[in-house]
Amino acid sequence: MPELPEVEVTRLSFAERIRGARILGARLGKPLRWPLGLDPAALAGRTVLGVGRRGKYLLLQLDQGVLLVHLGMSGSLSFQAVQPDAGPHDHFDLATTRGVLRLHDPRRFGAVVWSASPDAPPARRLLAGLGAEPLEAGQFDPAAFHAGLKARRAPIKQVLLAGDLVVGVGNIYASEALFMAGIRPTARAFRLSRPRADRLHAAIRTVLARAVERGGSTLRDFSSATGETGYFQLDAAVYGRAGEPCPRCGTPVRQIRQGQRSTYFCPQCQRN
DNA sequence: CGTGGCTCCTGTTAGC
DNA sequence: TGCTAACAGGAGCCAC
């Protein structure tokens, strides 16, 4: 998916405009990862109070309940006054007095889930266990991060992806942050010294914050909910660049598999 | 209880 | 050019 920056850019692109809108109705397409958990007709008449984010989940706070939206691997949201007829991959429409929020998701790993509150069963199950918000002031603590890493035997790349220590770092930004910090992705998490954990902590924040500023620049086919494209420049240093020279030292970037996912790193700049 | 593997699904791309 | 297989941004779930 959409990693944290893309989700945040999406949120920023429609949160203000949808705030205060009254829901006119909802339409479901093919099944998503999880059922909505509510008769879509029951959403009519409710008001959208605001749009928050927890990790890669968007939370549409309603006057009664909350809608969790996850973009999965291939999801994107649009919010526009007038929507063309739904295509084969448009699986959720929320019609409001301000416009139609639409989830487009070819692979359908995404989901829209209704919950009575963020602490009620469906949302609670999905949100419990999520790690620290990396860009939220005071929530991503270096000492706690290092302590968390010390409890894990797994390769650092996979610990980052697990999302229970820090949220929002997906497959692209994990490679990018580890490159920036000069840490080999295969390094066992518990072996990272405090200084190196601190470097990684800073790199994660820098990489994610920069991507948010640039409007979610890592996705080849990403567009925000305003329908704007033009975020296509892939500014990755190593991700997707197997065989190309490392931007820092010129050594060819290497690609490996970790847990069925591709990892990219510079064997020269990233040692253990 | 941490870890690794599997799985959901469709579109794109690399390779022959 | 056409077919096939591999691969793609996630993450919950389930045996060890």
Q: Look at the structure and give the mean pLDDT.
A: 93
Which CATH architecture of the largest domain would you pick?
Answer: Alpha-Beta Barrel
Query: Into which percentage range does the β-strand content fall?
Result: 15-25%
Structural class: alpha+beta
Q: How many individual β-strands?
A: 10
Structure notes:
- This protein has helices spanning 4-18, 121-127, 142-150, 156-162, 171-181, 194-213, and strands at 23-28, 48-54, 57-62, 66-70, 76-80, 90-96, 99-104, 111-115, 254-258, 261-265.
- By secondary structure, the chain is an alpha+beta fold.
- Helix 1 (4-18) packs across helix 6 (194-213) and helix 3 packs across helix 6.
- The protein binds a DNA duplex (16 and 16 nucleotides) through helix 4.
